[in-house]
């Protein structure tokens, strides 16, 4: 009976070792697949980051180009606007001078009209008071 107990114990030890080996093998496989999954996730994340960086770099270049274009347009427009503003001021000054000249001409025209009316009155008065000579 000692032999059969010893052989039972040996079988149980062998069986326990097999179970332990199977457990370790399964655990090893599980951890390896877990590491592969994490590595795969990391590689995917790295690719996403690289793609995002490329996209943001492209957007940055486009925005810099747009910004430069806007600056150029701004500079050009401000120069044109300054030129237009200067021209408008010159036109305004010319209009003021023209208005002043028109007012002076109007006053002079009224003065002439008054003088002509006085002359006509004097002429009319002289005609009625002086004898008309018939030749």
Automatic annotation (TrEMBL):
GO terms for cellular component: BLOC-1 complex; BORC complex; DASH complex; gamma-tubulin complex; mitotic spindle. GO terms for molecular function: gamma-tubulin binding. GO terms for biological process: attachment of spindle microtubules to kinetochore; endosomal transport; lysosome localization. Belongs to the BLOC1S2 family. This is Biogenesis of lysosome-related organelles complex 1 subunit 2.
């Amino acid at each position: 009976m000692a032999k059969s107990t010893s052989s039972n114990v040996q079988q149980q030890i062998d069986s326990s070792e097999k179970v332990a080996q199977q457990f370790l093998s399964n655990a090893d496989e599980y951890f390896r697949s877990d590491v592969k999954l994490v590595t795969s996730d990391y590689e995917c994340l790295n690719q996403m980051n690289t793609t995002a960086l490329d996209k943001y770099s492209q957007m940055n270049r486009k925005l810099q180009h747009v910004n430069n274009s806007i600056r150029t347009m701004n500079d050009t427009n401000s120069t044109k606007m300054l030129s237009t503003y200067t021209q408008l001021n010159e036109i305004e000054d010319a209009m003021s001078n023209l208005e002043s000249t028109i007012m002076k001409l109007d006053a002079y025209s009224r003065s002439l009209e008054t003088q002509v009316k006085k002359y006509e009155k004097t002429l009319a008065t002289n005609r009625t008071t002086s004898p008309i000579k018939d030749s």
